[in-house]
Amino acid sequence: MHDDLSLERIVPDRMDSQDAFDMKTLQLHIERYAFAIRNGKPGDVLDIACGTGYGSFQLLQCDKYVQSRVIGVDIDQTTIDYANKRYSNPAIHFVCADAMSYQDPGGYDTIISLETIEHIKDAGLFVKKLHSLLKKDGVLVVSAPVTPSTDGNPHHLSDFSVPRFKKLFETSGFIVESEFVQVQPFSLKSILRSGNQRLSKTRKNILKYYFGHPGVFLARLRSLITDGLNNKYMTLALRKS
Q: Which of 55, 146, 147, 220 has its CA 20 to 30 A from that of 158?
């Protein structure tokens, strides 16, 4: 599997149960899917950027979705191969495709897109894409960091604040129905001296990055003042209007 110890790829079977960062990271992801299960609608479900498929599988363990059809989409073929092997289920179909180009004219009752939008170059276009894939009155469950993350994570292309994240959807034909905020404390010592292999994949030469991206540096300063040494994540349940 491509870089399964990166900041981006969660493989529950390979997380270190003795490592606090690994366990907290896994907990955050599981809690987001639990929120999606509570707020989504049964029927045709799309898990876009599904990763290794554990969340799609988690969905079908709930009686609410026992009659549902789940499509899991991810851009990495080796990850999809792993999902098909590890989380095989007659009700799940895993597909290798780019989130921006994926098509299904039938549409979906629920779309789940967790920790995806920050990787997309044009976030607004991605929101329109999700809107087009939803059936009338369909539910979108979506999450992203709402404290700066592009400075530490080289895979992230956009930063969001809580107001900006909500507005992105509210101006694109969605109504917020429920929200869920998670907090993940961190310390400079844990990042600089941690033996965790995931944390070793954070951005190198961050001072040089700040010099070239002064707006991100200012956003980080504001976050430190308002949020302290905490990363925050928001998950929204939205209804297509």
A: 55
